[in-house]
Design brief:
- The chain is of the alpha/beta class.
- The chain has 29 helices and 20 strands.
- Strand 19, helix 15 and strand 20 form a beta-alpha-beta unit.
- The radius of gyration is 28 Å and the shape is globular.
- The C terminus is likely disordered.
- It comes from Holospora undulata HU1.
- This is NAD-specific glutamate dehydrogenase.
Length: 734
């Protein structure tokens, strides 16, 4: 055996024992080898390592010295030989971009590296500007945690995909947009667990590996450096473990690890669990998706509860959160067909009442599948078939529903035919990408390659994206151009992240309040209905804002506008961060974020919330863009002028009026038209340097005449006052 093969074999098969400092070179090599397999082929990596085995040996030593706790400064950068293969140059770049590791943490049970992607130029690596990545390696567990910035939040999910990093990156793109409405930026984590390790054990290893390299905060929220970690970057203390596919029941585990580790977020580390808001029990994500659907139905002059039942084709099964809760949202539903990774469900003429009861039974049956469905409830020619079955016989009723003439069809072709069924809603609540652009090629999600359909071939009137990545953007555009109605996943299923954000911000508030955990938990549960209402209102506002934008920009599809809309929120948050929101006249907006019971009991603590600045940036960017969307897309609006006008003229009161008439599309349209006219005229006539000058202008306007004064008085007559004088009243109340 040649020398290079001996080195590779030794590094691959040497014992990966603990503590890791016993065999550090084996851990470093194995970790980066596993990571690079997410980017390059194994053959490419191994060939490069064999060719440059001498440089590889030096690189491993370079990593170990770089993070040696006894080093007083960062070791000099190792210079590769001119003949080093490209793969080794990539490895060198990755090591230089690695800013933390838990190699020297004595109790570590996995190997973790932290990569800052602004520090390298490897073009093959999927990344966004500022992206930070934690990679956790163990012989039985591998996973990535991607953050758009230091303060980011997103779910941690299990995956069986070989290309789990690509899956995480694609999900991150959605999460970045979805998180435009909350304080943190987007994050996403995906871990893959080998067969000889349980999901729970793999999850525990992954979570502890993440926390190993994170800084902490003390009781005064001052930074505490990560122990036994040589950090080559700044303070990094914000990390959360939101539930996701395969980990929805693990919030308690994550919080147990955080509490045992003394991590500052305590049981706010993982939302949900026994002390938080259980998304499946609340059905919050599916309810938010239904807000989108009901808004669309209102514009189609359809009533969810009256008239003809809403016909649905779905992806998922009743054991799932978003599918299960979604198909129990109303009894006025006809589920015509659905499929998941195991079975295909067909019911061409369902009885809404009987089928609802049976779906309810399945939802509460542990680990149910479509094969548990009582076939006597199906319409006469309905059936449930395994996806691995022989060709399926089609009855006349099935042929009619599927618009097919053949007598038999393969399960694969049957699934493609389901997407073409004429129905009201295509309810996407399962894993996979199915709706694409014509001739579009998808990288990743190989298991569903043969089940994709161009958007212009989908038979539904509405696509509801209860799950992420069900459609590509090109697929949505094709569907919309063919007459369909679709948002994007970041709009439809954002209620989950909004719910988690509220929970975490509530719990951070309670960290500063002398209250025992039992009483705190009682309060959190008591305010659940109000929290959920606020979350769903945010879903509603984003939907009606997009309808306004469609009126102004008919050349763009709703999905294209949705991306612009959420990017505008992200940009506005950045601009508003220049405002000093510690000033008391912003208190009312911060108080309104919290449920009334928390306001009444803990008024003064809310005003001193540790995230006050970030919360107000988020709250007010949502207000300004939800209420006045047309001023932020396709035109230039001064953020500070807009903020001052919105505040001093109390334009937020239009929100309550719109919400009072949310099912009356004409009244909603009239209110939004009025607020746009008022705001536009104010922008043209009132550009001041201070909040007090804006207040003086309002006082003058109320005692003068003219077109603007008449318009303003009309607005006042239609929208009730919150405060007679915003500045004075807020300060007096404080």
């Amino acid at each position: 055996m040649c020398g290079s093969n001996i080195i590779l074999t030794m590094l691959f098969y040497d014992t990966l024992s603990f503590p890791m400092t016993q065999h550090p070179r084996s851990w470093v090599f194995s970790c980066y080898h596993a990571y690079m397999k997410q980017i390059f082929s194994s053959q490419c990596i191994d060939d490069g390592f064999r060719e440059g085995h001498k440089d590889l040996d030096f690189l491993l030593s370079y990593f170990i010295q770089r993070f040696d706790l006894n080093q007083s400064s960062c070791s000099d950068s190792f210079i590769l030989s001119e003949k080093a293969p490209y793969i080794l140059r990539v490895l060198k770049s990755l090591i230089d971009a690695t800013v933390r590791t838990n190699l020297y943490v004595p109790e570590a049970k996995v190997f973790t590296i932290k990569i800052h992607h602004d520090l390298h130029n490897v073009t093959e690596i999927y990344r966004t500007p500022g992206m930070i990545e934690l990679f956790v390696f163990h012989p039985d567990v591998e996973g990535v945690h991607l953050r758009s910035s230091l303060v980011s939040r997103g779910g941690i999910r299990l995956s069986d995909r070989e290309d789990y990093r690509k899956e995480a990156f694609d999900l991150l793109q959605t999460q970045r947009l979805k998180n435009a409405v909350v304080v943190p930026d987007g994050a996403k984590a995906v871990l893959r667990i080998k067969e000889n390790t349980s999901s729970e054990q793999g999850y525990r290893l992954f979570i502890q590996g993440l926390l190993d390299v994170m800084d902490n905060l003390d009781d005064q929220h001052k930074p505490v450096p990560a122990q036994k970690v040589r950090a080559l970057d700044g303070v990094d203390s914000y990390l959360v473990a939101a539930p996701d596919k395969g980990t929805a029941s693990y919030s308690g585990i994550a919080n147990e690890i955080a509490l045992r580790s003394g991590f500052w977020l305590k049981d706010a580390f993982a939302s949900g669990g026994k002390t938080g808001y259980d998304h499946k029990k609340l059905g919050i994500t599916s309810k938010g998706t239904w807000v989108s659907v009901e808004t669309h139905l209102n514009h189609l002059k359809r009533d969810m509860e009256k008239g003809e039942p809403i016909s649905i084709v779905g992806v998922g099964d009743m054991s799932g959160d978003v599918f299960g809760n979604g198909l129990l949202y109303s009894q006025n539903i006809k589920l015509l067909a659905a499929f998941d990774h195991r079975h295909i469900f067909l019911d061409p003429n369902p009885d809404p009442e009987r089928s609802y009861r049976e779906r309810c039974r399945l939802f509460h049956l542990p680990k149910s599948s479509w094969m548990d469905y009582d076939v006597s409830v199906l319409s006469p020619e309905g059936k449930i078939v395994p996806r691995n079955s022989a060709p399926v016989a089609l009855s006349p009723a099935l042929k009619k529903m599927l618009t097919l003439s053949c007598d038999f069809i393969t399960p694969q072709d049957l699934i493609l035919a389901l997407f073409k069924i004429k129905c009201d809603v295509l309810w996407l609540a399962g894993i996979g990408t199915y709706v694409i652009g014509d001739q579009e090629k998808i990288i990743g999600d190989e298991g569903n390659t043969l089940l994709r359909i161009p958007g212009n071939k989908v038979g539904a009137k509405i696509i509801a994206e209860g799950a992420n990545l069900g459609c590509t953007q090109k697929g949505r555009i094709a569907f919309a151009q063919a007459g369909g109605i679709v948002n994007i996943d970041a709009i439809d299923n954002c209620a989950g992240v909004l719910c988690s954000d509220h929970e975490v911000n509530f719990k951070i508030l309670f960290q500063s309040i002398p209250i025992d955990e039992e009483n705190r938990n009682d309060i959190l549960q008591e305010v659940t209905p109000e929290m959920a209402r606020d979350v769903l209102n945010q879903n509603y506002w984003q939907n009606i804002s997009l309808y306004r934008l469609q009126e102004k920009h008919p050349h763009l599809t709703r999905s294209e506008l949705a991306v612009n809309f959420l990017e505008a929120k992200k940009n506005l948050k950045t601009h508003l961060n220049k405002v000093n929101f510690q000033e008391t006249h912003w208190d009312s907006y911060l108080l309104a974020y919290f449920p009334s019971l928390i306001q009444e009991k803990f008024f003064s603590y809310i005003l001193r919330h540790v995230l006050r600045q970030d919360l107000l940036c988020t709250i007010l960017s949502n207000h300004l863009i939800d209420v006045l969307p047309t001023f932020w897309i396709g035109r230039s609006t001064d953020p500070l002028q807009a903020l001052n006008l919105y505040h001093v003229f109390e334009l937020s009161r239009v929100r309550q009026m719109v919400e009072n008439f949310r099912n009356d599309t004409k009244k909603v349209h009239d209110y939004l038209t009025l607020i746009e006219e008022v705001f536009g005229k104010l922008c043209d006539n009132c550009f001041k340097e201070s909040l007090k000058q804006y207040q003086d202008f309002r006082d003058e306007l109320e005692h003068s005449s003219g077109d603007l004064s008449s318009l303003w008085k009309n607005f006042n007559s239609q929208c009730q006052f919150i405060f007679k004088d915003n500045l004075t009243e807020v300060e007096a109340h404080h």
